[in-house]
Amino acid sequence: MQSKESWRGAFCSLAVVLVAWWLISWIIRLPIVPSPVDVFINIGQDFFTKMENHVLYSLGRIFGGIGLSIIIGVPLGYLMGTYERVNRLLSPLVYFTYPVPKLALLPVVMLLFGLGEASKLIMIVLIVVFQIIVSSRDAVVNIPPEIFRSLQSMGASRIQMLTEIILPATLPEVLTATRLALGTAVSILFFTETFGTEFGMGYFIMDAWLRVDYLDMYGGIVVLSLMGFLLFTLIDVAEKRLSPWR
Amino acid sequence: MITIRDLSVKYKTRRGEILALNKVNISMDTRELYTVIGPSGCGKSTLLHVLSGILTDFEGSVLIDGKGIDPRNQRIGLVLQNYGLLPWKTVYQNVVLGLKIKQGRAELDDYGSWLLKQLGIEDLLHRYPRELSGGQQQRVALARAFMMKPDLLLMDEPFSALDAITREEVQELFLKAWHQNPVNTVFVTHSVDEALYLGRKIAVFSPSPGRILEVVDNPCFNQDNLRSRNDYYIEMSSYLRNLLTRG
Q1: Which of A17, A140, A182, A204 is buried most, with the most CB atoms less than 10 Å from its CB?
Q2: Mean pLDDT of A63-73
């Protein structure tokens, strides 16, 4: 998302979606599909009075959840990728728990950790951390052995191997995993925010739905997707900055 | 001085153990350039892995100036066939990597600048390896190895992936850099011509499991215009080829 062309692409696709939306609303003419023009006007009026706080809550939860997943998942993945023994011990555990439908655990998590922020973060981490573990492990395994050899012959320490090879070599893969995790995190967030909170975009959208305020509901959905777009762009920019060699 | 006594290396595979090196004995004088030649799979690279401290599971003794091999205490320069450059570092960062690891800081001294100029890479310092040709990458790898003024320089078929013309160019650059700083060098190759052109002494290996058949003094070394002369050269190359085919 750095070059002019990709920005142009983004605007074109946005335009296509908006035109399609507008056409559907024009054909159906029901309050359940309002015109995008009305929705955007509504966002303009409501954003700083009604939505801002919800956006900040949701952003905080996404950053918290993904940040925690990276802090837990990347070192674990590195250990599994570097030490065959650790991998043999942990990978069955990861493979066994990865496919468990963790959303079903929401009641259990809420019972154990309360209705507050903790259980929302834990849900995001529980679902997202596995893809980060597996990606960072595979990224380490895929580093060609010759690269380690030349540093080994220079007498590099383990820390130097980590900082000179493993971190820079795996960074692009870790960022890709984060990008995938982001999409998942936003959808889990929506689900968890419909329970036990009065803040967050999930709450805002469901609340608008229950109040039959479709303008607010669509406004919430649009803002949520813009949030996602912004976060994805942020990761793209970070990748360009941090891995210029690719 | 490198002293190798009864060096044997076994690899474990699924089908059992494979003997890669079989009781290798050789003493290599300091400030000498040895080329090691032998058929593929004879354990030449295994020998380099032992000398570079990558492979530590071997029988026999390998001493460098009377001490066992430890890359943390010795300065070992290793140049590999596929260059072994770090793709995420610029040419400059790659070149000073050895200094950074050995001394904790990386600065170019006079010798360093001379080396970069000599190898013709002083204008490429801000590029990444993927933006370089094979010959340029190999010159960067040479610069990295010489830059740390190694006690021991190990070359594992470093020029075999280059095209013929580039190879001759890089061979000459290598000799120039070596004469400036004549470090104990073990140069593995599978080419008789390269062994003759670069080796002051030539160690000839048998087919697997590798033994040393003979260590030959090379009268061709350091002869001007070696490539265009043929007296010594033909004699020596047919002698080596005979040795190799007899096994």
Answers
A1: A204
A2: 96
